Amino acid sequence: MAVGRPAGCGAKACRSTKGDGHLIQPSAGPDGPGAAAKISVVVSTYKRAETLRETCARLAAQDLPSDAFEVIVVDDGSPDHTQDVVRELLRSLPVRLRYLRHDNAGPGYTQNRGIEAASAPLVLLIADDIWLKPQALRAHLEAHERHPEPEVAVLGRVVQSPRLTETLLLRTHDPFRFGQLDGLEWLPYYFFWGCNISFKRSFMTAHGMFREDHGPGGVASHEDTEVGYRLAQHGLRIRYEQAAVGEHYHHETLEHFIGRAYMRGLNYWWFRDLAPAPELSVRYRTITDWRCVGDHVRAWWGPRRALLIGGDRRPLQLLATYVARTLVFNGWAVDRIWLPLVRTAERNQRLANWVRPMMYRGIVNRSFYRGCRDGKLSRPRSQPERPATGPRLTGL
């Protein structure tokens, strides 16, 4: 069944008028305004001023004419010196730059404001910690030229930045794991990831827009997968473009990974009420109750099997993974073996040589499943009505 704009999605577009509390301040580049932009790059940011500076510098270094694109920085109420950094960028960057700021509201609200403010027919969403390679924007544009259909979106590749070498965790753990997509050209809707994805603005505004409310675990509410699910009701197709590469540059600790995974778990059942597709139980590796078991059966042996990729399509292999996860990365083992091991390895090079990415994945995933368990126990019987309005917008 087709799904329109849900409760919690803002409908009012951003306008560059002081009377509405909005202010978009453009930087036209060295040669003036130039031609109409082909693509608008929306950078959602929160409390990463210096990382944002480099993110925008990488955009200015794209191998496209500066008038072929615009950059829209949307600030989710950062308490740091983000505004000062943007003031400098408005004066110095040789690209068209606009800036929006609003009170802290979360990623969905922030991305919606950027999409609504975009002037180009194509929109690229990136996070403030994604540093695009020089050819990335061109790769996005060329992919859309090859596939002009309104329902086609383009997902670019994201890799961990080679500069992240301070800790064993940053050198070893890849939170995105884009390697699983090698050899694929078209992806299911649940790869609508807001870290490096472009789409036709008209298709998004007509059929989607992100939810602006949050689940019980806060802002880690699976908002990109949820909007991908709704867009799929209108024919969304996602093209994978490996040449559109971005580096992920974010100094994170293991405690942050664990905490965020737990919050995502708390939000899982809230999200699944919004996106009840059975293949999501397989994709998220949740097999915690009979509903999830039924989802696996329907996804593996029904028409929705076409929406699974890789090992998700092989029931015996995935069941073996579940058994191994229960035996090796259960709560007792994670708390008493794996967490002490990787923490000690940060200080012991000999032990660090034995640490593998699988260990970090097992630790983080266990935190996610704990969140799923706790979120289910506290789950309300019905979803409350959520407001469609958001916080006040301001600007420089």
Keywords:
single chain, 396 residues, alpha/beta, Spore Coat Polysaccharide Biosynthesis Protein SpsA, Chain A, 10-stranded mixed β-sheet, disordered C terminus
Give the topology:
Layout: E1 39-45, H1 49-60, E2 69-75, H2 82-92, E3 96-102, H3 107-117, E4 122-127, E5 130-132, H4 136-146, E6 152-160, H5 168-172, E7 186-187, E8 196-200, H6 201-207, H7 223-232, E9 237-248, H8 254-266, H9 268-274, H10 279-283, H11 290-300, H12 315-328, H13 331-345, H14 349-352, H15 357-377, E10 393-394
Parallel strand pairs: 1-2, 1-4, 2-3, 6-9
Antiparallel strand pairs: 3-10, 4-8, 5-9, 6-8, 7-9
Helix pairs in contact: 1-2, 8-15, 13-15
Question: Can you offer a commentary on this structure?
Answer:
- There is one protein chain.
- The protein starts with 38 loop residues before the first strand and ends with a strand.
- The longest helix has 21 residues, at 357-377.
- Strands 1, 2, 3, 4, 5, 6, 7, 8, 9 and 10 form a ten-stranded mixed beta sheet that branches.
- It is an alpha/beta fold.
- The protein has two domains: 18-252, Spore Coat Polysaccharide Biosynthesis Protein SpsA, Chain A; 261-377, no CATH class.
- Helix 1 links the parallel strand 1 and strand 2 (69-75).
- It has helices at residues 49-60, 82-92, 107-117, 136-146, 168-172, 201-207, 223-232, 254-266, 268-274, 279-283, 290-300, 315-328, 331-345, 349-352, 357-377, and strands spanning 39-45, 69-75, 96-102, 122-127, 130-132, 152-160, 186-187, 196-200, 237-248, 393-394.
- Residues 1-7, 10-24, 28-32 and 384-395 have low confidence and may be disordered.
- The protein is globular.
